[in-house]
Design a protein that fits this description.
Elements (H helix, E strand, L loop, with lengths): L10 H20 L13 H12 L9 H4 L2 H16 L1 H11 L6 H10 L8 H31 L2 H14 L19 H16 L1 H14 L12 H25 L11 H14 L15 H13 L12 H15 L5 E3 L2 E3 L1 H28 L4 H12 L14 H16 L1 H8 L20
Antiparallel strand pairs: 1-2
C-alpha cells in the first residue's frame, strides 16, 4: 500500500497564506450590507480591493473610506490594518503568550521568517516588546490627535484619532476624516508632526527601536556618543531615512515653490512643513496633504524614487527598504573602486547580504515594471500616472494621481495582485514558490568570464 505524502508548507508559505486568508475573510466581511454606510452591499471587487489595501497597509482606495463604510466596516478595516502592520503571525504569537502557552520550534521559525531575523533566541520577548511598543506609540498618537479632532468632531473625534494613529503607525495611509485625505490639515503643525513621527517610527523598524534603547540605557551614565555604539543595521537605517527625508523635502520645496496648485500661495513656514510632510508620507505612508496630480513632474519623479526605496526592514513600511538600497549603492561604488568588499561605517557587509539586496531589488522592480505595462495596456492612463500608481502599490504607499477611483475591473485586479506581492515581499515570494535549496555538495558548473557594461 502506497502511503500518501503529507503536504507540508514552509514557514514562508504559511506567512503568504496567512495574508491571503486574512484578505479573503476581510473582503467577505466588507461585502456584507452591515459594512456599508448606506446599508447596500458594496460590490465584491471593491470590497476585495479595500481588504487588500488594508491588510497590505497600502492606502489606495477605489471608494472614499469616510463615506462608503459604516462604523462596522471601518472597524473591520482598522483591524485589517493592524494585522497587516504587525503581521498575523505576530498577532497569533501574542495571543499564545497571553494565554501562557509555550512557543514551539515551529512557532519560533514562523516569527523568525515573519520579521526576517537572523536568530531564534529571545523571540518571545521580542514579540512582547513589538506588541507593547506598537500599542503604546499608537495610544500616544491617538491622544495627541484628539487635541484637534475632538474639538472639531466631538465624540466621533475619538474614533477618528484612534483610526488615524493606527493607520499612520502602520504606514497604511487610510483615514476616515475626508475624501481628500489630510489636505484640509496641510498647514496644521500638530497633525503634520504627529503623523510624521508615527510614520517614521513605524518605518524605522523594531530592530532599530530596541537597539537605540539598548545603547541609550547602557551609555546613560557614561555620557558618550550614542550613534557610534549602534549596530550597523541601525546606523544605515537611521542615516538613510534622515537623508532621504531631508533631501526629498528640499527638492519638493524647490520644485513646488511657485506652483499655485500646491504650495505656491502658502507662507514660507507652510511651504516648508508641507514639503517635509510630502517627503515623509512618500516613505510608504500614503497620506496626502496636497493633491498628487497637481505636483510638478519633477516633484512626482522625486516622490516616485522615495516610494520605491520605502522604509526600513522589520517595520511596518514597504518598498525595497533603506538598508537594501544602501548596500546596493555601496556595493556598486566598491566595484568601481576595485575593492574586494562592501563596507559601511567601517564594517564589512557580508556577500550574502549583498546577494539578498540584489535579489530583492530585481524582484521588486520586476513586479513594478510588469504591473505598469499591464495597467497601461488595459487602461487609458498616462505613463506617469500608471507608474505612480504601480510604484505606490508595489511599495505599499497608497498615494495616487487620482487614478485609483477610475480603474476598470481589470485594472483593480492588477493593483490588488501588485499590492499583495509588494506586501509579502519579493524575496519571500521567491522562496515560497521556489524549489528546495540545492545541495552544497553538488559539483559546481565551470566558471567563464563575460563582458559587463
Amino acid at each position: 500500500m502506497v502511503r500518501k505524502k503529507k503536504l507540508t508548507l514552509s514557514t514562508t508559505q504559511i506567512i503568504l497564506l496567512s495574508f491571503l486568508v486574512t484578505i479573503l475573510v476581510g473582503s467577505a466581511l466588507l461585502a456584507l450590507p452591515i459594512s456599508s454606510a448606506t446599508g447596500d452591499a458594496v460590490p465584491y471587487l471593491d470590497a476585495l480591493f479595500m481588504a487588500t489595501t488594508s491588510t497590505c497597509v497600502t492606502g489606495l482606495v477605489t471608494l472614499p473610506t469616510v463615506s462608503t463604510w459604516s462604523v462596522f466596516g471601518q472597524s473591520v478595516i482598522l483591524l485589517l490594518i493592524q494585522i497587516g502592520g504587525l503581521g498575523i503571525i505576530t498577532i497569533m504569537s501574542g495571543l499564545m503568550l497571553l494565554l501562557n502557552r509555550k512557543m514551539g520550534i515551529g512557532d519560533r521559525l514562523l516569527i523568525q521568517d515573519a520579521f526576517n531575523l537572523n536568530t531564534m533566541s529571545g523571540l518571545a520577548k521580542f514579540v512582547k516588546n513589538v506588541l507593547f511598543g506598537t500599542f503604546f506609540i499608537e495610544g500616544i498618537g491617538a491622544i495627541l490627535y484628539m487635541l484637534v479632532f475632538v474639538p472639531e468632531f466631538g465624540v466621533k473625534g475619538i474614533w477618528i484619532s484612534v483610526f488615524n494613529s493606527v493607520s499612520a503607525f502602520c504606514n497604511a495611509g487610510i483615514d476616515i476624516i475626508a475624501e481628500n485625505s489630510l489636505c484640509n490639515y496641510a498647514t496644521n503643525p500638530l497633525i503634520n508632526i504627529v503623523t510624521s513621527v508615527l510614520i517614521i517610527l513605524g518605518g524605522l523598524g523594531y530592530i532599530v527601536w530596541w537597539d537605540v534603547l539598548r545603547v541609550v540605557k547602557s551609555r546613560s551614565r557614561k555620557n558618550r556618543k550614542i550613534f557610534r555604539h549602534l549596530t550597523l543595521h541601525s546606523k544605515i537605517a537611521m542615516t538613510v531615512t534622515a537623508g532621504l527625508i531631508l533631501v526629498g523635502a528640499i527638492l519638493i520645496f524647490v520644485f513646488e515653490y511657485a506652483n499655485p496648485l500646491t504650495i505656491g500661495e502658502m507662507s514660507l513656514f507652510n511651504k516648508i512643513q508641507v514639503s517635509f510632510f510630502q517627503s515623509v508620507t512618500t516613505r510608504t505612508a500614503g497620506f496626502a496633504s496636497v493633491a498628487q496630480e497637481n505636483l510638478t513632474n519633477a516633484s512626482a519623479a522625486v516622490s516616485l524614487l522615495l516610494m520605491l526605496i520605502g522604509g526600513s526592514p522589520v517595520g511596518t513600511a514597504g518598498g525595497m527598504k533603506t538598508v537594501t538600497v544602501a548596500v546596493l549603492i555601496c556595493s556598486a561604488f566598491s566595484t568601481i573602486r576595485n575593492k574586494n568588499s562592501t563596507t559601511l561605517f567601517g564594517r564589512r557587509v557580508s556577500e550574502e547580504s549583498v546577494k539578498k539586496a540584489v535579489a530583492v531589488a530585481v524582484a521588486f522592480l520586476a513586479i513594478c515594471a510588469t504591473s505598469t505595462v499591464l495597467l497601461m495596456a488595459t487602461s487609458s492612463a498616462s505613463a506617469l500616472d500608471a507608474v505612480y500608481e504601480t510604484a505606490s502599490a508595489t511599495a505599499t504607499v497608497g498615494l495616487s494621481r487620482n487614478l485609483t477611483p477610475t480603474l476598470n475591473s481589470v485594472g483593480k485586479i492588477i493593483i490588488i495582485i501588485t499590492m499583495y506581492f509588494g506586501r509579502v515581499g519579493p524575496i519571500s515570494l521567491a522562496v515560497a514558490l521556489g524549489s528546495k535549496n540545492e545541495s552544497q555538495n553538488v559539483i559546481s558548473e565551470p566558471t567563464e568570464d563575460i563582458s559587463i557594461g
